[in-house]
């Protein structure tokens, strides 16, 4: 929990920067868990450069939402965490579950934007959300995704290189989802 969290009034929206950082911290923790397997809040803090209290808070939040779980340990104060183990009831592999989590975080960020965009500076109150439906083959769908990735490539290093950011640049979520539309159970096959 940040100092701003402690000082904010109940019901008062938090600063968008805090919300972005919250998403970044949780994503970084999930990436770290995917890389190393298990981690304590203290270990995560050392690896990621955040405070152990912040890491502990977000690890507990991720666990509360069912994305991670406590790893088995033998007493002591250390509390190791791991990605939630493969759930044999869903049959979904861990990579798929991790993708579902990432999409959930994206959706959460989008809903927060919709609810609070009127609090953004005037020049940032618009978004560029759009969607389209077209008929593609699996190969064409992959080519479209590659074109989008190449279009974004020149901007990707700005997160790690703050000096590469032009004046006035702010973090912007860039989300693209390409997937086949499946028929509803009541639709006729082939339509």
TrEMBL record:
Native organism taxonomy: Bacteria, Bacillati, Actinomycetota, Actinomycetes, Kitasatosporales
Segments carrying the region annotation (Disordered) are 1-20, 70-98
* Record SUPFAM superfamilies: Winged helix' DNA-binding domain
Which InterPro entries would you find in this protein's record?
WH-like_DNA-bd_sf, WH_DNA-bd_sf
Q: Where is the composition biased (Basic residues)?
A: 74-83
Task: Output the Gene3D superfamilies linked to this UniProt entry.
Answer: Winged helix-like DNA-binding domain superfamily/Winged helix DNA-binding domain
Source organism: Streptomyces netropsis (Streptoverticillium netropsis)
Top-level division of the source organism's lineage: Bacteria
- The protein depicted here goes by the name Helix-turn-helix domain protein
């Amino acid at each position: 929990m940040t100092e701003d969290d402690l000082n904010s009034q109940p019901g008062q929206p938090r600063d968008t920067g805090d919300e972005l950082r919250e998403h970044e911290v949780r994503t970084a923790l999930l990436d770290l868990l995917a890389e190393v397997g298990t981690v304590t809040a203290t270990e995560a803090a050392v690896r990621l450069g955040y405070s152990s209290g912040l890491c502990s808070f977000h690890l507990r939040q991720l666990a509360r939402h069912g994305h991670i779980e406590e790893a088995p340990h033998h007493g002591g104060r250390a509390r190791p965490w791991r990605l939630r183990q493969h759930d044999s009831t869903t049959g979904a592999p861990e990579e798929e579950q991790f993708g579902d989590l990432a999409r959930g975080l994206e959706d959460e960020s989008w809903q927060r934007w919709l609810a609070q965009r009127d609090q953004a500076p005037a020049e940032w109150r618009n978004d560029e959300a759009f969607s389209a439906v077209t008929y593609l083959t699996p190969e064409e769908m992959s080519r479209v995704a590659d074109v989008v990735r190449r279009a974004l490539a020149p901007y990707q290093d700005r997160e790690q290189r703050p000096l590469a950011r032009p004046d006035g640049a702010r973090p912007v979520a860039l989300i693209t989802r390409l997937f086949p539309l499946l028929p509803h159970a009541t639709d006729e096959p082939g339509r």
